[in-house]
Amino acid sequence: MKAIIEQKSNEVNRLVNDLKDATSILVFEYHGVPTKIITSIRKNLHNANARMYVAKNNIFNRAFKLANINFISEMNGPNAIIISHGDQIVPFKEVNNLIKEYGKVVYKKGIIENSTIIDNNQLSQIASIPNRESLYSMVLSCLQAPIRNFLYGLKAIADTKPQN
Mind giving me the DSSP string for 84-97? Predict the structure, then answer.
């Protein structure tokens, strides 16, 4: 009996440590999603420096209380938590894809950078935001556009003048 209690305590402590350092947290009910899909989502999240936890709701509730996160009251049903330590948008994209594919997935709550609570209406808006690398490339493209257009103009002028 003590071994089980110690194991649960270790699991709660591990979750608390992950929750304290998280850039985003997402809670959703995954009822009806095949195991194969959950495994592929976990791989995608692992590559994006995020983790998906599936545990009993009692463990999740204890971890939230110890981490001083009070954005969700009591959880019921088969819940999963995605904790991201990298790109904040990746968990929202994955869950939004699940909701589109399987209607039974229920998004509960999310939080970004320990302050902004995301409700159900904002999920699809946040999921449509490009990832960090894409945003960087968009900004760089905007910065390069005036120089590129200027050089195209110079080349067009040079092409119209006869060469000696």
Answer: ESS-SSHHHHHHHH
